[in-house]
């Protein structure tokens, strides 16, 4: 229902950039709702004298700051590319996520200190049905808020909003702990308010650390998801005229700004125009269907040269004898007046114990023994995204 409402909202407002507008909407809703929740909980905390409830209220105040940072992040990310930032500003969203994480950790740390003081200096709580009702209302509001963030995050594929949604659900759990602890203390002689506050503070800090790790990963750059790699592979498989492909590199400059490079193997008997037309079609399909700006490097393969094909098959058999699931590409034989050189790249699994130098020596020796006295030039690659997908 929420997803349908959001679609109607965007259709009614007719925005050109739905992603930015949904992000801004989430920030505005979060700003207002978290302020209201802060007021509700701070009143409940002051009336009851519960440090854990006050800690929970301040957590909502930090969520308000997070909403402000969310607004800032989406405003900055919406800026178009300029001379200084030719790839746009979409990574600003990741920066806002990192700042939100730091705010959460700071708030958690401050109230951990306060809660420890309460453990050593306990006070009596003044609980009432009104305070219980206020906390129950705040729990319900946080559940709705979490699903709201989560729905928008899935619609616009925002990891930052997914983190904010998780923070909202964390608030539900923490408020439940506070509510149960306050009720138990008011009904017994156990002074557990400080312990509940300390537990809550540690929980807040832990969630902030998890968000920092995610934001840093986004800023440093992470590998594409399995679904994205499979979509790229399936699209390439639709072009029957290419001999093969390898060395896919994907660079993300934000949720909607992805660039990639790949090597495409083609028949070396093709004309330059024929090869260019094929490459152009592949690049256009990537942009239209996957929203990825692809740049292709052409590798000519001598598919009609019987001697090259024979040597290619023999090299393939040699690599199979190592039982390391070795794959190779960019195979060619360079001929000069003095000698002939066999060149190719070998893809190695990360868990392979042999070093590159050891494999080079062994493969070269096998080629000399089984094929002939060729010079051997091998490049080793231990990271191949498409290989991992195929396996």
Automatic annotation (TrEMBL):
It is a multi-pass membrane protein. The keyword Transmembrane helix applies. Residues 224-300 form the Cation efflux protein cytoplasmic domain. Keywords: Membrane, Transmembrane, Transmembrane helix, Transport. Gene3D superfamilies: Cation efflux protein transmembrane domain, Cation efflux protein, cytoplasmic domain. The chain crosses the membrane at residues 29-54, 98-120, 126-149, 190-209. One of its GO terms (molecular function) is monoatomic cation transmembrane transporter activity. It is found in: Membrane. Residues 29-220 form the Cation efflux protein transmembrane domain. GO terms for cellular component: membrane. Pfam families: Cation_efflux (PF01545), ZT_dimer (PF16916). Belongs to the cation diffusion facilitator (CDF) transporter (TC 2.A.4) family. PANTHER family: MANGANESE EFFLUX SYSTEM PROTEIN MNES, MITOCHONDRIAL METAL TRANSPORTER 1-RELATED. This is Cation transporter. It comes from Jeotgalibaca ciconiae.
């Amino acid at each position: 229902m929420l997803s349908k409402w959001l679609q109607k909202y965007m259709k009614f407002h007719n925005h050109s950039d739905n992603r930015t507008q949904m992000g801004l909407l989430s920030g505005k809703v979060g700003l207002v709702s978290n302020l209201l929740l802060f007021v509700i909980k701070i009143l409940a905390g002051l009336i009851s004298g519960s440090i854990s409830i006050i800690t929970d209220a301040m957590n909502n105040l930090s969520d308000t700051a997070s909403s402000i940072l969310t607004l800032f992040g989406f405003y900055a990310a919406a800026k178009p590319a300029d001379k200084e930032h030719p790839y746009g500003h979409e990574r600003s969203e990741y920066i806002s996520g990192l700042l939100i994480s730091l705010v959460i950790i700071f708030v958690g740390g401050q109230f951990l200190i306060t809660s420890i003081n309460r453990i050593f200096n306990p006070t009596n709580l003044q609980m009432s049905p009104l305070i219980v009702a206020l906390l129950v209302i705040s729990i319900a509001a946080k559940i709705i808020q979490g699903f709201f963030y989560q729905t928008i995050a899935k619609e616009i594929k925002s990891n930052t909003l997914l983190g904010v949604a998780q923070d909202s659900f964390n608030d539900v759990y923490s408020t439940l702990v506070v509510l149960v602890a306050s009720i138990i203390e008011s009904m017994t002689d156990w002074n557990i308010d400080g312990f509940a506050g300390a537990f809550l503070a540690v929980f807040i800090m832990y969630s902030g650390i998890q968000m920092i790790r995610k934001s840093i990963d986004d800023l440093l750059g992470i590998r594409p998801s399995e679904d994205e790699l499979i979509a790229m592979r399936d699209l390439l498989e639709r072009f029957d005229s290419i001999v093969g492909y390898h060395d896919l590199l994907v660079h993300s400059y934000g949720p909607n700004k992805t660039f990639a490079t790949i090597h495409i193997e083609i028949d070396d008997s093709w004309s330059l125009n024929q090869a260019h037309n094929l490459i152009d079609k592949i690049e256009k399909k990537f942009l239209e269907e996957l929203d990825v700006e692809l740049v292709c490097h052409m590798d000519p393969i001598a598919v009609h040269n019987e001697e090259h094909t024979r040597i290619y098959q023999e090299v393939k058999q040699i690599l199979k004898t190592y039982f390391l699931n070795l794959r190779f590409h960019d195979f060619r034989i360079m001929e000069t007046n003095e000698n002939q050189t066999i060149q190719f790249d070998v893809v190695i699994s990360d868990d392979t114990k042999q070093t590159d130098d050891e494999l080079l020596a062994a493969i070269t020796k096998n080629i000399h023994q089984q094929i002939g006295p060729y010079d051997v030039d091998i490049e080793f690659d231990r990271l191949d995204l498409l290989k991992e997908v195929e396996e």
